[in-house]
From TrEMBL:
Keyword set, alphabetical order: Signal
Signal sequence residues: 1-17
Lineage per the UniProt record: Bacteria, Pseudomonadati, Bacteroidota, Flavobacteriia, Flavobacteriales
Superkingdom field: Bacteria
Descriptive protein name: DUF4878 domain-containing protein
Length: 128
């Protein structure tokens, strides 16, 4: 009986631990790696419909010959209750990249940014 209670508590703990909210940076890393490794199930899960369609439309061109460890490194992150911006570098691209994320149903999702949206960062030495 004692073993059953211990196993039940352990299972409950593991189930709750798996439902952790990801930060904008963690979500961005998943999106980058799923994009370049062509894991479209994960890509779709962590993007808005617009973000998914935008990334899918360039995936074959951009991801060709690139896979493996991303060496994802966050340069800057800023967020409020609904929107986040993450500027990062990877081993896949020479220049830093920028993602805009929206909070949808309590989870961060990468979305497609407009052509003039550059984030809220004050530094001007990055190009995206």
């Amino acid at each position: 009986m004692k073993n059953i209670v211990i196993c039940s508590v352990l299972c409950l703990f593991l189930a709750c631990a798996g439902k952790q909210d990801l930060s904008p940076s963690e979500t961005s890393k998943i999106v980058v790696e799923s994009f370049y490794n062509k894991d479209n199930t994960a890509l779709k899960k962590y993007t808005t419909p617009e973000g998914y369609e935008g990334l899918k439309s360039i995936q074959d061109l951009m991801a060709a010959g690139k896979s493996g460890d991303s060496n994802f490194k966050v340069l800057e992150e800023t967020a409020d209750d609904k929107t986040a911006w993450v500027r990062f570098t990877t081993s896949y691209e020479e220049n830093p990249e920028l993602f805009m994320l929206l909070k949808v149903d309590g989870h961060w999702k990468v979305t497609q940014q407009g052509p003039r949206e550059k984030g809220l960062f004050k530094t001007s030495y990055f190009h995206s």
